[in-house]
């Protein structure tokens, strides 16, 4: 099957002659081919968006919000279809795929509040006869480049606020699972969005570079790995664009001696192995404090990990997590596990030989647990993005805090404790963007903002929540004085309002 782009309200075949294979990760089969756009195809999408955008910007925000209201209804209507297409290309379980759609849908719901969120500020009588007001205006044509791991949620995090603000949006989704983004664009059109306001351009580096270099693309939002985030941030900024880029992660969960260890172990299982560990908010490092805590935690983790059910999404509720996205991802994960063993960490659960009858060609990796890893090992320094949990034992709270503080990534973290003072100290001192207290995956809800610190984010505004409305608009401030006084002659000193 040959996939398409979605331009000016229509499915459009690729013309570059370049394609990428799209796999079913559970079977290892190629199920579709996605076109990889050339710079000329990207330019055509921008041209259509640029032509459509002024009319959309002039549509009042309440009417724009109604499109999102209808979009939310259509997402619910098509939930099963979306989840199935998502699982088929990504590999995650059906309930998890629905979660992917729902966490995006919640941002669409938040954006229905656009009329309120776009209100400016007003000062009546800022000076004698002078009023001052600000308004938020759309930027024009903006773009989003998104990763494979949340093919529904992250595109919606980007295009819902951008479009609610009155922009036209170019979406360049991951070439590994492009079908759901195309379906989302169809639903936006069905919901009443004018043609050209949401363009889906499939592609790889060539399409991304064309976005970064196109003079009519005013802003770029990116989510993906840190090296690409850094590259896109630098090239986009150099070309004078507004850019926000969110990168990789290595999320630590500190387990204090006073924590409920059964609860902590359950949390680590879900947060470490859910979605095969392919989440930027997955917990990949467990840091028990004290030898006794570490021993008791490992003792609880091992039987839980051994019970994990790994399989294809078609097995329904019988599966805890599925395959990883490609054979290259699997090989990279297996390579890192091998390096952990070589560098001296204890592999207490080894899932490397996992194989599933009937799915021998699927990209499965069995769950792995490392104990006694150290700071210098590759399994600790690098993002593995697979079903591998690494334990680093700390002697004290300060040592555990220091580990998370010193790591180059700063997306999410969590502490498990019964002590409010420790939790409060941790939340206050940690240099990481999203913090959980007895919550392993602290992904903020749509009306708060999502973003990491350090090498996990480039730029100064977060995703969704009020920050998204700031990112996708610019402020204009008007100072107005009405007739009297204008006849009185010129002012030569700088105006002050005193
Ligand atoms: P990726 O960086 O390989 O790809 C992301 C996007 O960039 C894709 O659209 C891809 O086509 C494009 N791209 C890839 N290589 C490129 C290049 N050389 N030049 C220009 N564009 C290029 O990331 P991925 O593997 O799809 O996603 C997994 C990564 O995303 C992980 O590192 C994960 O932590 C991260 N992630 C971060 C967040 C967050 O909010 N911080 C959320 C989800 C995923």
TrEMBL record:
Could you name the domain of life of the organism this protein comes from?
Bacteria
Q: Which CDD domains match?
A: ALDH_F6_MMSDH (cd07085)
Record-linked InterPro entries: Ald_DH/histidinol_DH, Ald_DH_C, Ald_DH_CS_CYS, Ald_DH_N, Aldehyde_DH_dom, MeMal-semiAld_DH
Q: Which Pfam families is this protein grouped with?
A: Aldedh (PF00171)
Enzyme Commission number(s) from the entry: 1.2.1.27
Q: Name one GO molecular function term.
A: methylmalonate-semialdehyde dehydrogenase (acylating, NAD) activity
Q: Which GO terms describe its biological process?
A: L-valine catabolic process; thymine catabolic process
Q: Which PROSITE patterns match?
A: ALDEHYDE_DEHYDR_CYS
Q: What class of enzyme is it?
A: oxidoreductase
The reply to whether Lipoprotein figures as a keyword in the UniProt entry is no
Domain Aldehyde dehydrogenase, chain residue ranges per copy: 12-478
Q: Which UniProt keywords apply?
A: NAD, Oxidoreductase
Show which residues constitute the signal peptide.
none
Cited PANTHER family: MALONATE-SEMIALDEHYDE DEHYDROGENASE
This one is known as methylmalonate-semialdehyde dehydrogenase (CoA acylating)
Q: Which species?
A: Paroceanicella profunda
């Amino acid at each position: 099957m040959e996939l398409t782009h979605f331009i000016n309200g229509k499915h459009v075949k690729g013309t570059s002659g370049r394609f990428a294979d799209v796999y079913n990760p559970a079977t290892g089969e190629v199920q579709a081919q996605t076109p990889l756009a050339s710079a000329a195809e990207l330019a055509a999408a921008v041209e259509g968006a640029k032509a459509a955008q002024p009319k959309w910007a002039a549509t009042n925000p309440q009417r724009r919000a109604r499109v999102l209201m209808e979009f939310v209804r259509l997402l619910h209507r098509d939930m099963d279809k979306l989840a199935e297409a998502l699982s088929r290309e990504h590999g995650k379980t059906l309930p998890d795929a629905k979660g992917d759609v729902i966490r995006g849908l919640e941002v669409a719901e938040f954006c229905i509040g656009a009329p309120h969120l776009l209100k400016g500020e007003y000062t009546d009588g800022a000076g004698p006869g002078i009023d001052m007001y600000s308004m938020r205006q759309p930027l024009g044509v903006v773009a989003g480049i998104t990763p494979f791991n949340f093919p529904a949620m992250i595109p919606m995090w980007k295009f819902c606020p951008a479009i609610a603000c009155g922009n036209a949006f170019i979406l360049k989704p991951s070439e590994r699972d492009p079908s759901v983004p195309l379906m989302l664009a169809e639903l936006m059109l069905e919901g009443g969005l004018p043609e050209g306001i949401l363009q889906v351009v499939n592609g790889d580096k060539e399409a991304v570079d064309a976005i970064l270099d196109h003079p009519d693309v005013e802003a770029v939002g990116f989510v993906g790995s840190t090296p690409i985030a850094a590259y896109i941030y630098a090239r986009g900024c150099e070309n004078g664009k507004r850019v926000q880029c969110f990168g990789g992660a290595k999320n630590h969960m500190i387990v204090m001696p006073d924590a409920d260890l059964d609860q902590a172990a359950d949390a680590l299982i879900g947060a470490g192995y859910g979605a095969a560990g392919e989440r930027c908010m997955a917990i990949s490092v467990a840091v028990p404090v004290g030898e006794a805590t570490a021993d008791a935690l490992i003792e609880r983790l091992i039987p839980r990990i051994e019970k994990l059910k790994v399989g294809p999404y078609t097995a329904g509720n019988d599966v805890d997590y599925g395959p990883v996205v490609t054979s290259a991802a699997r090989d990279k994960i297996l390579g890192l596990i091998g390096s952990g063993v070589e560098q001296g960490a204890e592999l207490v659960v080894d899932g490397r030989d996992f194989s599933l009858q009937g799915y021998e060609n699927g990209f499965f990796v069995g769950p792995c647990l490392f104990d006694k890893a150290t700071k210098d090992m590759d399994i600790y320094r690098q993002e593995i993005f697979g079903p591998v949990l690494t334990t680093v034992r700390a002697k004290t709270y300060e040592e555990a805090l220091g580990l998370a503080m010193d790591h180059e990534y700063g997306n999410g973290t969590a502490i498990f404790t019964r002590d409010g003072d420790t939790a409060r100290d941790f939340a206050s001192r940690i240099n990481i963007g999203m913090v959980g207290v007895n919550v392993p995956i602290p992904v903020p809800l749509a009306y708060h903002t999502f973003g990491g610190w350090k090498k996990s984010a480039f730029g100064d505004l977060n995703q969704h929540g009020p920050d998204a409305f700031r990112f996708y608009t610019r402020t204009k401030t008007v100072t107005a004085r009405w007739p009297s006084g204008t006849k009185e002659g010129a002012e030569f000193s700088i105006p002050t309002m005193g």
